[in-house]
Each structure stands twice: as structure tokens, then as C-alpha cells.
Write a structure and sequence with these properties.
Largest sheet: 8 strands, parallel, barrel
CATH topology: TIM Barrel
CATH superfamily: Divalent-metal-dependent TIM barrel enzymes
CATH architecture: Alpha-Beta Barrel
Number of strands: 10
Shape: globular
Distance between the termini: 11 Å
Bound molecules: zinc ion
Mean pLDDT: 97
């Protein structure tokens, strides 16, 4: 069976409820949003009215999984304790908003070790992930994203994610979000024929496919192994169409939401979502 839930990261400038309707209009059956400004520490408080409007839009649009992406500022393993504390508070706010809105999970980049080394980075990150989970509702899920490994970003190898998971005792509220552009830039060759299948097999062996809760579907402007994170429109980058065809027709991804985070959302998301929908074998 082909993927049932395909969509996009939708802009929320006109409101969270509007993002869902706009997503539906361009053919999305899954949507990712920011529940707060991704460039600011201070999060907006959601009013009861905003939550009610969002839930109404959710029902009206009949979307499948809707989930969020955390603030870009979050660094759970920052060397500066003050930044770590702000990050923990920010992520707690994110998961509380997810629960209030009824979202399936929050995707997080987790952090960058900034020279402390990856082991120290993962240890600090795991410690703080457990604090966040301990202070948030039981229905709020945290999905760690595979990164391109740009700079000192954690989690650019599947083994790294597996280790953080283990440091968290395999906590049931932790999932993983795989980003096609990130894994490619990190050195996983999803561009060759059969490449995506082999990479998903490796994911299954190292992490376990049952942890895969979402896919970010982006083409890459940068080369295999470059460790540089630059998204490109689908089919116009170095990954190419075959990977995306394999992705939306992979039996293990039938109920995993697949969303694009490509540039020029307002004008190009419709095209990129349509591109994915058209690659499905059963339309
Ligand atoms: Zn992503
Ligand atoms: Zn990226």
C-alpha cells in the first residue's frame, strides 16, 4: 500500500487553524506546524479560543496526523547551562501545546554539542529529554530528527539516535523523524536505485522502524556526505525522483506521515505535495 498521509510544513502566519485549511486545499492529508515562533525563546500562550478554532479546523479538514516542529533555538546539550535551561523550558512548552492541541508529536533537532564532543552531547541531551518528558502530559510525544550533522549537530548517524534512545531507557514517548535531505547529506545514499530501501533496512536494524513516526521529504542542494543542510524542491536536487517514488510506495510507511519542508511554501508547496501524490502507484 502507498503512503496514506502526505503533506507539508504549513505556514501559521494567518493562524494555526488557517494552516490546516491551507494544507487541505493543496491536497495534504498530514500537516506539520510551528506552534510558536521558531526564532524566539518566548512562546506565545495559546488561548482557549485558538485551541477550539484549531480543533474545529482539524475536524473540518479531516486531516490525518498533525504534528509540530520545535524552536530552532533549542539546544538540550548547550555548554552554557542557562541556554540548556531555556531549551528545556521551551521544549516543555512545546509538548504542552502539542497535548492541548491534540497533536501527534513534536519533531526536535535536540541540539549541537558545540565542541564538547558527541558523547557528552548525547548524555546531556538524554538527561534533559527525560526532564522534559517528566514534566509534560503523557500523550505528548517527542520525535528526534535525523540531522545532516552540520556543525556539531547531534544525531547524524542512526547509531547516535539509538544511543540517545538507550540513554533514555527506550522511553515509549520518544520517536524518530527521518529527513531525506539530512540523511543524504550525512552520507546515507538514498539517491541510488534501491538506496532508500537499504537505508530504511539499516534504520530498522539500528533503531527499529517502530520508532519511525514521521518523514521529512526534501530534496538536497548539497552532495552526499557534505554534512550541509540545504533543502531543494523535490526532483530538482541531488536526491531525485526515484527515492521519493520508493518512499511513498514503501509498505512500512503506509501510515507514517510524509511532509515536505521545501523552500517557498506559499507558492511551491502545492507543487511539491502534488509531486509526491503523483508518485504513488495507486494514485
Ligand atoms: Zn526536517
Ligand atoms: Zn534541514
Amino acid at each position: 500500500m502507498a503512503a496514506r498521509f502526505i503533506g507539508a510544513h504549513m505556514p501559521t502566519g494567518k493562524g494555526l487553524d488557517h494552516a490546516l485549511r491551507a494544507g487541505r486545499e493543496i491536497g495534504c492529508t498530514a500537516v506539520q506546524v510551528f506552534t510558536s515562533s521558531p526564532q524566539q525563546w518566548k512562546a506565545r500562550q495559546l488561548s482557549d479560543e485558538q485551541i477550539a478554532r484549531f480543533r474545529a479546523a482539524r475536524e473540518e479538514t479531516e486531516l490525518g496526523p498533525v504534528f509540530s516542529h520545535d524552536s530552532y533555538l533549542v539546544n538540550l546539550c548547550a555548554p552554557d547551562a542557562e541556554v540548556r535551561e531555556k531549551s528545556v523550558a521551551s521544549l516543555i512548552g512545546e509538548l504542552r501545546r502539542c497535548s492541548a492541541l491534540g497533536l501527534a508529536g513534536a519533531v526536535s533537532h535536540v541540539g549541537a554539542h558545540l565542541g564538547q564532543g558527541e558523547d557528552t552531547g548525547r548524555r546531556l541531551a538524554a538527561e534533559n529529554i527525560l526532564r522534559v518528558l517528566g514534566e509534560t502530559p503523557d500523550d505528548a510525544m517527542l520525535w528526534m530528527e535525523t540531522t545532516a550533522g552540520q556543525g556539531s549537530a547531534l544525531h547524524w548517524r542512526f547509531e547516535h539516535l539509538a544511543e540517545t534512545l538507550e540513554l533514555c531507557g527506550g522511553h515509549r514517548r520518544i520517536g524518530v523523524c527521518l529527513d531525506t535531505a539530512h540523511v543524504f547529506a550525512a552520507g546515507y545514499d538514498v539517491a541510488t536505485p534501491g538506496g532508500l530501501e537499504a537505508v530504511l533496512e539499516e534504520f530498522d536494524r539500528v533503531i527499529g522502524l517502530e520508532r519511525l513516526r514521521a518523514v521529512h521529504c526534501n530534496d538536497s542542494k548539497k552532495a552526499l556526505g557534505s554534512r550541509v543542510d540545504r533543502h531543494e524542491h523535490l526532483g530538482q536536487g541531488l536526491i531525485g525522483e526515484e527515492c521519493f517514488r520508493a518512499l511513498v510506495n514503501h509498505p512500512a510507511l503506509e501510515s507514517v506521515p510524509i511532509v515536505v519542508e521545501t523552500p517557498e511554501a506559499e507558492t511551491m508547496h502545492a507543487r511539491n505535495v502534488r509531486f509526491l501524490l503523483d508518485l504513488r502507484a495507486d494514485g
